[in-house]
Amino acid sequence: MIAREYVRKWINRDPIRFNSLHGDMLSARVGMTLEQYVWRAIRVSVVAGILFGILGYFVSFILTYHILTTAGGIYNVLNFQLPVLFNVIYPFEYIQVSSILLSFFIGGYIAYILMLKLPAIEKGNRAIKINITLHNAVAYMYAMRRGGAQLMVIFRCLSDRADIYGEVALEFRQIVRDADFFGYDVVTAIRHLTETTPSEKFKLFLDDLLSVIESGGDMADFLSIRVQIYQEEAKFEQKQFLNVLSLVAEAYVTLFVAGPLFLIIIMVVMGMVGGSATLQLALITYAVMPIGSLIFILLIDLISIKGEKTERFTKVKWLHTFTDVRICKKENEQYQFDQLKKYDRVRNIVHNIRHPLESFVNNVNTTFYVTIPVAALYLLLIFTNVPHYRNIETYINVVDDHIVIAILIVLIPYAIFYELWSRKVLGIQELIPDFLERMAGINQVGLTVAQAIGIMVNTNLGLLSYEIRRIKRDMDWGANFTEALMRFEQRISTPAIARTVTLITKASEMSGQIGEVLSIASSDAKMSEVLKKERLNEMFIYTAIVYLSFFVFLGVVAVMTTQFLPVLTHVAPKGVPMSGALSGVGSIQIDVFGRLLYHACLVEAIFSGLIAGQMGESSISAGVKHSCILLIIALITFNFFVVTHTPA
Question: 57-64: long-range contacts (C-beta < 8 A, 24 or more apart)?
Answer without folding.
Answer: 57/96, 57/99, 57/100, 57/103, 59/99, 59/103, 60/95, 60/96, 60/99, 60/100, 61/96, 63/95, 64/92, 64/95, 64/96
